[in-house]
Amino acid sequence: MIVIGFITGYLVMMNLIGFAIMGIDKKRAVKKLWRIPESTLFIIALIGGSIGSIIGMRVFHHKTRHWYFVYGMPAILFLQIAVVIILICSPLQFSIM
To answer: C-alpha angle 3/51/22, rounded to 5°?
Structure first.
């Protein structure tokens, strides 16, 4: 149970960060300030913040004209879901010592 709580907390944190950096980058874009690199936006999505990043894209109307974000962010989410399903359905046993 502790592991599930840790994973849940981690995913909540990463999705909040993904949402926040989309908003921060949009605000910086409007003000023509230094921007968060696109690679950073994708890395945050890859390490667990894909849902927050997608929601941030929609809420802040940010990066919605870039095809690699419009298709890339959902692709990352689907890949993450597939990995979770494969791990759940796999015959391997995972245990914590």
So the answer is: 120
Q: What tens digit of pLDDT does each residue of 18-52 get? A: 999 999 999 999 999 999 999 999 999 999 999 99
Report H helices in the chain: 2-30, 38-44, 50-60, 67-70, 72-89
Which residue has 């990066």 as its token pair? 63
pTM of the predicted protein model:
0.87
Residue 65 CA to residue 63 CA, distance in Å, equals 5
* 14: nearest Cα among 44, 55, 54: 44
Sorted by sequence, the CB contacts under 8 Å of residue 96 that are 6+ apart come out as 3
Please give the structure tokens belonging to residue 77.
Answer: 């989410």
